[in-house]
Specification:
Blueprint lengths: L1 E5 L6 H14 L6 E5 L1 H10 L3 H8 L4 H4 L5 E6 L2 E6 L1 H9 L9 H10 L2 H10 L2 E8 L4 E6 L5 H11 L9 E3 L2 E5 L8 H6 L4 E9 L12 H31 L2 E7 L12 H20 L2
Parallel strand pairs: 1-2, 1-9, 2-5, 9-10
Antiparallel strand pairs: 3-4, 5-6, 5-8, 7-8
Helix pairs in contact: 1-2, 1-3, 1-11, 6-8
Length: 295
């Protein structure tokens, strides 16, 4: 059984789309099972129904207002360079309204249901072994995996949304008395889960460089410093997931193929730029192509 695993990575998901396009359209790979965390959970339903043109259109046209109902960030331009600053007004209003997060992502929940139809949901359940999204149960301090085979359409869309909620910059969700958020807070790359569910070959797309060598510039205020800190912690979780995944693959005789980004694509993956995401999609496609040509 072949599985495609896609890690978390926000806007860098466009890169994963390019890699997946090459593997499925040009290598002829067909997957029985799809697992994703955060942005990976947004990609996998569309890959499972093999609708890459639709996925490309979604990921290269998404804007901040498609994700955030209250955005904690402001995009600015200086010449040809786009950069990010904190929206202190929105963040302050969140404090005044006694919200626990700097931003809210209800717009993303609407976007998911608009782009992923119930007909596609039923098609996946009929034709694929499984599609699984990763979420973090903050109340129980555990990671949970939500299968399309165990959910209604409404429930599955809700879990996809929860898997993407990177707190404290996006919403916290409550389900059955438990509070949930981004699956990446507990598992960024669910390779081991794919193997536990019966995968005999796994292609894992990891939205980070294999070796991070360039020095990062830390934030100049507490808010942006927090973003850097969270990024550092998630990188450590990701590396741990990869090591565990490799060990599980060796112990179970599973073929594991890893696809990294050639460099660190962005310092803030919660910023969605059409220009950058179109570029990253092509970079992912070219990277996968060169990787296979150089084998």
């Amino acid at each position: 059984m072949k599985a495609l695993v896609i890690s978390g990575g926000g806007s860098k998901g466009a890169y994963a789309g390019g890699v997946a396009q090459y593997l499925m359209e040009h290598q002829g790979k067909s997957y029985d099972m799809f697992l994703g965390t955060s942005t990976g959970s947004l990609l996998i339903p569309h890959l499972a129904v093999d609708n890459i043109p639709k996925l490309y259109d979604i990921f290269t046209n998404v804007q901040q207002h498609d994700i955030f109902s209250v955005s904690p960030f402001v995009q600015r331009k200086k010449g040809d360079r786009e950069y990010v600053s904190i929206d202190f007004i929105n963040s302050m209003w969140q404090f005044i309204r006694r919200r626990r997060t700097f931003g809210e992502s209800n717009a993303l929940r609407r976007s998911i249901k608009r782009n992923f139809t119930e007909e596609e949901f039923l098609k996946i359940r009929k034709e694929k072994a499984d599609v699984v999204v990763t979420v973090s149960n903050l109340s129980m301090n555990t990671v949970e995996y939500k299968s399309i085979n165990e959910c209604t359409y409404e429930e599955f869309c809700h879990w996809i949304w929860i898997s993407c909620n990177y707190i404290p910059f996006m919403s916290i969700a409550k389900v059955n008395g438990f509070e949930y958020a981004d699956g990446g807070l507990g598992c960024v790359v669910p390779i081991r889960e794919a193997i536990k569910r019966g995968a005999t070959e796994v292609d894992a797309i990891i939205l980070e460089a294999e070796n991070i060598e360039n020095q990062k510039v830390l934030g100049k205020n507490p808010f942006s410093l927090m973003i850097n800190l969270f990024g550092h912690l998630l990188n450590q979780v990701e590396q741990n997931d990869i090591v565990i995944g490799k060990l599980a693959a060796v112990n179970n005789g599973v073929k594991l193929n890893l696809y990294y980004t050639p460099s660190s694509l962005t310092e803030n993956s919660l910023i969605f730029s059409k220009k950058l995401m179109t570029k990253w999609w092509q970079q992912g496609f070219d990277y996968a192509k060169n990787k296979h040509l150089n084998k």
